[in-house]
Amino acid sequence: MTIDKSNKYDRQLRLWASTGQSNLELSHICLINGTTTGSEILKNLILPGIGNFTIIDDKEITTNDLAGNFFLTNDNIGQLRASALCESLMELNEDSKGHAITDSLDEIDDSVWDRFNVVVVSDYIDPEFLDTLKTKLFKKEIPLFIVNTVGFYGTINLIINEITVIETHTSQLFDLRIDQPWQELSELSDSYQLDSLDDSDHAHVPYVIILMQALRSWSDSHNGPPTTMTEKRQFKKFVQDQSRNFTFETNFNEAVSSVFRAYQKTQVPSMVKSLMNNDKISDKNLNNETPFFWILIRALKSFVELYGNLPLPGTLPDMASDTNNYITLQNLYRDKAAKDKELFIEEVKRVLTIIGRLDGLTALEIELINIFCKNSHSIHVTSGSSQMTSKSLLEQMLSNKSNDYDNEEYNHLAIYFGIMTFNHFIKQNNHVPEESDYDNFIKLFSEVFECHPDLPLSALKTFKEIVCHSSSHYHNISSLMGGIASQEVLKIATSQYVPLDNLYVFDGIRSQSDKYKI
């Protein structure tokens, strides 16, 4: 990256570093429908530097489009919406290249979808075409976001068959191996004779060493590390008593405040264990089509079987110490991490040999391995669905019954089912529902989802709100939903942070939201 780009994208580089930014710049995002919400989504992707974006929309701009879309003006009326929006949005960032497709969705060749890393549908498209598109993209393993806003309500679906994330940024739990030090770390700890140090040196011993020596001493006299709450409180007092002047010895203050790290057991997290037992990495299922992520998981399983633990990340927290002590300790962790990485690479190569790949690792794969070794304790995998609803989700919505209209719990799932009914109503009647269509709206809901029209009052109240406020142009809702949706797209594009799994519902009337798994 150039210096100019580093300055330009400084804030986001702090979030996802150069690897995330590179992934973003290589991404191509497709937006179907240049609506107000869709424009807000693209705006939030173009500003941080998405590489390419394409708008698919065959509609002409009308005065209705100007109601909430800040990227269109009176001069655009009568123009094709995709072209006008593309031209306007490209002014936000010269690094992002925009493209417009003004054909109808039925006329687009299937091969077009292969260009995109993510496809976003904004508001209404034909429900039958949406079903077809979902099936196509699910098979192609291209993530599909479906974003809808109606009145003060909004929903987001993520349709994807599998999500794998290495850099989840979920925690900052440093792997210090205080309870299971390797040989060099044990030798360093043994080299500190705390009782013989002068006061200055005693106040600059890194707290990792303090905790290691305290844990070993405690374990020798108590037949093991502290396990109960009583023992942990006693151990904390034991660490504090090693200080000569607890008020002024910052390193011992840090040791006491971080005492949990001493009895934090070094082990493979349950989530990682479950991945290492996944049938995808069995020898019978490994082949040249296996994603590189699962190759890494197979190598990780072998590494743990051979060496007992995950690769050491090699990062240290800041701590009170003099420069020499801290750098010595830091180098020790870095050297161990580097050795573990080399051993892990050997396991990766062995797995690649098993599947018949003999061309060696690419530079990109080596970089991915480096990231994987630093984050193997917090990797995330989830399986998605190509469905937009389920029997259990519908039953959950219908079971929200209350006889008290004023004090009932508001039904977030009714928002979701109401918006899907809203789109089916447009398909059937060629116009958005109005207040006079309320009874027909309820009937259509019952037909589409094959259920009895005897609905809970919370659902009836929600459906009433939808037909009374049947606009998709409320800019405050479009802006907020555009921000949330773009954030989820960025997670997919950068391959960092844990994305939505897999339904989000927003109630703008009460400023409440909820997530559901389909």
Which key features would you list for this structure?
518 residues, alpha/beta, Rossmann fold, 4 domains, 8-stranded mixed β-sheet, two-stranded antiparallel ribbon, 10 strands, NEDD8-activating enzyme E1 regulatory subunit
Major β-sheet annotation: 8 strands, mixed
Number of individual domains: 4
What is the fold-level CATH name, i.e. the topology of the largest domain? Answer: Rossmann fold
How many helices? The count is: 19
CATH architecture descriptor of the largest domain: 3-Layer(aba) Sandwich
Q: What string gives the helices and strands in order?
A: HHEHEHEEHEEEHHHHHHHHHEHHHHHEE
Can you give the mean pLDDT? 92
Structural class call reads alpha/beta
Task: Enumerate the strands of the largest sheet in spatial order, edge to edge or round the barrel.
Answer: 3-2-1-4-5-6-9-10
**SS elements, strand count:** 10
Shape: elongated
CATH class of the largest domain: Alpha Beta
CATH homologous superfamily (4th level) name of the largest domain: NAD(P)-binding Rossmann-like Domain
Organism: [Candida] jaroonii
Protein name: NEDD8-activating enzyme E1 regulatory subunit
